[in-house]
Every structure is written in C-alpha cells, then in structure tokens.
Automatic annotation (TrEMBL):
Name of the featured protein: Pentatricopeptide repeat-containing protein
GO terms of biological process kind: RNA modification
Keyword rRNA-binding: no
GO molecular function: RNA binding
Entries under SUPFAM superfamilies matching the protein: TPR-like
Gene3D superfamilies attached to this UniProt entry: Tetratricopeptide repeat domain (1.25.40.10)
NCBIfam families per UniProt: PPR
Organism whose genome encodes this protein: Fraxinus pennsylvanica
Keywords: Repeat
One Pfam family it belongs to: PPR_2
Amino acid sequence: MVSSISDKLNTATKKILLLRHCVFFLRCPEQYIYHHVLYTTGTATSYNNPSLRNEISSKFANRDYSSIFSNSNLTYECNVRMSELGRLGKVNAARKLFGEMTERDAVSYSSMIALYLKNNDFHKAEGIFREIPDSKRNIVADSAMIHAYVEAGKIDEAQKIFDQMPARNAFSWTSLISGYFRIGKVDDARELFYKMPEREKNVVTWTNVILGYARNGLINEARDAFDQMPAKNVVAWTAMISAYFGNNQVDKALEIFYMMPQPNLYSWNVIIKGCLDGNRVNEAKKLFDSMPWKNVVSWTTMVMGLARNGMIELARIYFDQMPNKDIAAWNAMITAYADEGQMVKASELFDLMPTKNFVTWNAMIDGYAKNCQENEAFKHFVLMFRSCMWPNEKTLTSLLISCESTLGVSQAHGLVVQLGSHPEMEKIYTVLQDKLLPLMQEKAYENAILPAMQ
C-alpha cells in the first residue's frame, strides 16, 4: 500500500517528503501519524481505512530511521502538526501532542499559547506560559501573553513581562500602550510611546495612539498624533474620522474624509453611519448616492440610520431597493414600524422574513405589548418558544410589564406551562411575582402559576 501511495508522488521531492513523514510517525503518538502521512500524500480521504493503516504500520514498524533526522527536525514536524490541529479547531488533540513531545522548542510553546488564546482560554494559555523554561522564552510567546494580559485587564502582569523581555517588537510595545490607554492611564501610555524606538513604530501603533487619545476625550492630542504620522494608510485616516465622530465633531470628520486620497468601502460606511448618527441625513444620502460601490453593510447602515431618525418611509424605500437584505436590515424595519405602532406593516415584514432571531421576536412582542394587543403579544411569545428560541429577559419584560393591566390568569398559567423547562425558570417566576402579583389579585395568580411550575 505504501508503494501505491508512492505511485501518486510524481517528484523526488514528494518521495523524500513521504519518507520524512514515515520517520515522523515512528517518533510521534500513533493517533497523529496516519492522517499526517495520508494528508501529505493526497490520500487523506482513506484515513479511516483500517487495512491501509495496518499496512503502512507493518511496513515501517521494524525499521529504525531515527538516525536520519535530529530531534530538532522531529520537533519541527510536531510543531507543524500542532499548528494544523489548531487550524482544524482540535485543541485537545493539539494539547495531547504537545504533552507527548519528547522535545519542545520556543515555537512549540508559542504555538500552544496562541492556540489557547485563539479559543479564548486565557487561563490555560497562562499555564503553558508559566511552564516555559527561561531558555525557551522568545519574543513571540512574550508578546502574545502581554496582549492577553492587556485584554484581561491585567496591565501589571503585562508590564512585568515587558520589563523582562531582552528584546521587544512592535506588537509588544503597541499592546502595552493600548492597555494603558484602555484603563485611562494616558500619561503612562504617552510616556511608553515616547520611549518606543522610532523604527518600531508602525501604522498599527500610531492608529492605536490616535484611538487611545480619542477614547479618553483628548481629541486634539489625537489629531496631533495623526498629523505627526510619517505615513498614513486608509486605516489611520478612518481611525481619525471615527475619533471625531466619537467626540461629536461631525464637520471635522467630514473634513478628514474629503482629504482622504483613496477611501475604501469601510471608510465610506463609517462616514455614512457617523452622519446618520449625528442627524446629518442629507449629507449621508449625498454620500451614499456618490459611493463608487456598495455592499450589504452600506445599505443596512442607511436603512437603520433613517429608521432611527424617524424617517420610516424613506428607510422602507432604501430597504426595498436592497439587492440582498441581511437580518439587521429586516430587524431595523420591523423595529421601526413596531416603535411607531404600525403593527400591520411590522407583521407583514415579519411574515416575509426568511430567518428570525431574538431581536426580531422581541421587537414584535414589545410592539404588540406597547400597543395593548396582549393576545398578539402572547401568541408571538408562544410561537417564539415553539421555534426553539428561549425567551430572554427583554422578552419577558415586554410581555409581562407592558401587558400587566390586562394579562389574564389563564395566560399567566399558559406562560409558565410553556416555559416549564426553561433553564432560568426560577428567575422567570421571580419576575412574575415581583412585577405582576403586587398589581393584581395575588392569590388568583398563585393558583394559576404554582401548579404550572410543579
């Protein structure tokens, strides 16, 4: 079978690669071997074939190729395999391979840390980091953990690693600077930025400084940093636009936008959204009409912005013109109609909507509740439940609070029956008890609710 695999290899290089992987599986745990060989040789679809696995194993089980490759080469192979498992989302398999490696290098530790961080498992990443021998520490692992500590709000831990680094890269500098801006320590961030070697400052660093100043309300400092940038790309331009919008300076944002050499689609969408949020509807319409190209985000931004500004009919015109409607656009129109009490139009769109989420259901239930159509509100609540969506706190608040004056005993009983297996049933009962019972005949509701809960 090995020869049949080799027949598929049409170059000497691929034959050598096959040999390397066969040697690799003599050293690595069995469960990682066959797939790696077959994947490399283009026969990965046969991975689950027991006879193929047995034949490959028997061909090489009694041969010793260990002298051909050094441990460092085998460590490299394991690192490659670990990265592949990470790309496939097989974290446990990667961790098992990492644990069974006879020798690990700096890349091994860095790869495992990166994999855990990618899967939002900070504590395990931290555990691997603390296991690294001093001789295996490298700039990649240190920088990754600095960024992770910053994201976790542990700026002191990040600073400690930073201080211990023999050499630093732009990522480690930028992560720590951003961390100080994030917690409002602007002076520390500024001092660190001034200490950063000029050769390490890249567009990401400058952009983070601009946004850091802006988010702390220092818009003039943000503009100074922007003006000092040696080279600006579209990300930096857009960051400055966002900074002005975040500080309610729409005219300044427009000024920067019109100065941009080549705005991209994201920049166009940002400027349109900012104008709509700043109640500059005419400016937003003019910009939208002059866009060289539009995507679904562009259209949805217009629909949502016009709806928020109370221009429902104009929003509907843009909505109807959309080539492809996403769920956010549907929800924006339904919510706008519901907020205005136009439940017939909201219901028409609701029935046409191909896919619904919590926002959709809550908009309908809340709209009916606010318009004293408690029967329709309760009906949609039941339909939501039957659609395999658990109601959340907003759903319950809309249904119970808005309809508290007319919700009947039978509906309260039906509500609890429908929610009998809800994971937060006790919380739901507390809402019922706290919000409804003081306003109505407590005994009647308890007679309806308590048996249903049992």
